[in-house]
Amino acid sequence: MSLLEILRFAGRGVAANKLRSALTMLGILIGVAAVILLVAVGNGSAQAVNRSIEALGTNTITVSSTARGGTTPSALTVDIAQSLHDPALAPDVRAVSPVVSSAPTMTHAGTEYPVAQFLGTHPTYFGSSNSPLAAGAAFTDQDVAQGRRVVVLGRTVATELFADTDPVGQQVTVGGALFTVVGVLAEKSSASGFADPDDLAVAPLTAVQQTITGYGPVNSILVEATGPDRVNAAQQQVTQILNQRLDLPAGTTATGRGGAGADAAPYRIQNAAQLLATRTETAQTFTVLLGTVAGISLLVGGIGITNIMLVTVTERTREIGIRKALGAPRRTILTQFLAEATMLSVLGGGLGVAAALIGSRFTIVGVQPVIVPSSVALALGVSVAIGLFFGSVPASRAAGLRPIDALRYE
Amino acid sequence: MTLHLVGHHHRTAAARTRPVLDVKDLTKVYGQGEATVHALRGVSLTVAAGDYVAIMGSSGSGKSTLMNILGCLDVPSTGTYHLDGVDVSRLDDARLALVRNRRIGFVFQSFNLIPRTSAVANVELPLAYAGIKPAERRRRALAALDMVGLAGRADHEPNQLSGGQQQRVAVARALVTEPALILADEPTGNLDSRSTEEVLGILDQLHAAGRTIVMITHETEVAARARRLVTLFDGRITTDVRQDGAR
Ligand SMILES: Nc1ncnc2c1ncn2[C@@H]1O[C@H](COP(=O)(O)OP(=O)(O)OP(=O)(O)O)[C@@H](O)[C@H]1O
Ligand SMILES: [Mg+2]
């Protein structure tokens, strides 16, 4: 009997028991689809976090003041900020933007909106913070020099104040002064649960100092390194200059969270990678958790497949007895049952992959799933292996029986 | 109907033709302890090529047990079985499969058709295992079904057929490979007199064509068609007579 014939027999066997075949395939389908999709959701959320890191700029270092009162000599000033832009002492610094921030209420034609962040800074801020414009143009160095009252709005502020009309060229009132909108920032992709990065407005430093904050120290200094791998070097150079300017001992460090001691620097210096390391960790925990759930569902799916396959063979032991009585050799029977199991598990697994691919096109709990190819291989491999094993092992047991024992099997 | 006891007459016949079936001191014990059943208690029997044997006996006398051993579907507890001079207990699985497929056509008491599979596909099955091409297979299966008067039911599945029709499909399946040895366990048990006559007619034809037939039956009229009548009682052969098999 040729292999093709045996395959045809197997196909007929699958078709002859439609409900059973369908249930087996459904078990495999669900197992495979669940694993692929859950891993894809975990992966998707991790990628969303990555994107938000990139949105904040991976090249940036933020120096923020920790001094209270604002006028202490150690406070960060525009002068200090400018001293950081020094090709000799800080060759790895590309741009420096001093930033003052406040949270005033913005008004336009009777609509009021309390903006989360109203920033006064230099035009380099847009490049450093990875904030391209969607409409209009950014303000220029000249605008800063002349203290011109122009403003660039974040997407959220623009929609809150102007709804559907084009804000560029319109005027808004902030702290009693009129600002002309010159541009709107492109929307930043935001991972769910984090603060809205589009709820801000950016104006020239001088204009904001003049109208809102006064000419005191700045709140923070945004430093852009020349490249992602130069961030640490730039951070060291910046620290050195700051310590010198602020008359601090040479060894003083002021990174991250360790600013509690009495001899701590009056400023804090953080880079984006540090800032978001915690978030990445959280995302990884999430992926591991989902992976575990997926593994369990694969196990449960596998038990389901095993069960149906066992029932199938019990049911078909009589049939195996008949086939043996008619002169089917053991090998032919084994090949047929193995082929049937292969058809069911490969077809079920394939449909499971298809279901997962379709499912991954929808957003699941606010996350756009991203398929991990290795999860497809793993899920498919495990369920096909289970299908094959439990399809063929009991069949081989039945094929080894004497025909009369197989016929009497109950 | 003329009956004569097996005597020198039989012995000369046996010497003339080589025995196809030769069993000696067969016993078969089922179960153990309290539940032990001695289904066969020492059966010795030789059947010559071309003979037509009917086996009778009350229910539970061990007829089916004997037939299953003769059909290489079961093995005896003790005793020997030579088929065409070959000791069956020495054959491996592949050889046994070959013997079942090429040498023996078996009709089961309980039909044993494969469910959810059409009559013609059931009849084709032994041919498929014999490695015959699909077109040729289909032609021969349909011819065999035609022979048992079921050409019109070829595409029906077993559960769409009456008991008698299922039995005739089982007969067709046993005949389709044209085996030299036909073992039939009550092939007419579920048939009306007309269908019985048809099946017996087929067996007569096969006998005339030189095939060896062993058939179990409960009906004396059916047994009368055979050339030799063996009676079993409680796992032993009690009578073994030649008869003329007159129609
Ligand atoms: N698998 C088995 N396990 C235990 N006992 C069995 C088994 N098969 C048959 N028997 C017993 O062996 C004896 C002979 O059974 P067998 O089927 O050979 O009878 P039979 O002559 O064919 O009867 P019938 O005319 O009713 O078909 C019976 O007593 C039966 O109960
Ligand atoms: Mg019986």
From TrEMBL, chain A:
Note one Pfam family from the annotation.
MacB_PCD
Q: Where is the ABC3 transporter permease C-terminal domain?
A: 292-401
As for membrane topology, the entry says: Multi-pass membrane protein
GO terms of molecular function:
transmembrane transporter activity
GO CC list:
plasma membrane
Subcellular location per UniProt equals: Cell membrane
Question: Per the record's keyword annotation, is Cell membrane included, yes or no?
Answer: yes
Q: What is its main location?
A: membrane
Please report the stretch or stretches of sequence annotated as the MacB-like periplasmic core domain: 21-241
Listed A to Z, the keywords are: Cell membrane, Membrane, Transmembrane, Transmembrane helix
Annotated TM spans = 21-42, 288-313, 333-358, 370-393
Listed InterPro entries: ABC3_permease_C, MacB_PCD, Macrolide_Exporter_MacB
Query: Member of which family?
Result: Belongs to the ABC-4 integral membrane protein family.
> What protein is this chain from?
Putative ABC transport system permease protein
Source organism = Micromonospora marina
Q: What is the phylogenetic placement of the source species in the record? A: Bacteria, Bacillati, Actinomycetota, Actinomycetes, Micromonosporales
From TrEMBL, chain B:
Query: InterPro entries in the record, alphabetically?
Result: AAA+_ATPase, ABC_transporter-like_ATP-bd, ABC_transporter-like_CS, ABC_transpr_LolD-like, MacB-like_ATP-bd, P-loop_NTPase
> Superkingdom of this entry's organism?
Bacteria
Give residue ranges for domain ABC transporter: 21-246
For this UniProt record, the keywords arranged alphabetically read as follows: ATP-binding, Nucleotide-binding, Transport
User: What PROSITE patterns would the database entry show?
Assistant: ABC_TRANSPORTER_1, ABC_TRANSPORTER_2
UniProt entry tagged with the keyword Nucleotide-binding: yes
Write the protein's name: Putative ABC transport system ATP-binding protein
The answer, when asked if Cell membrane is one of the entry's keywords, is: no
* Single GO MF annotation: ATP hydrolysis activity
Recorded GO CC terms: membrane protein complex; plasma membrane
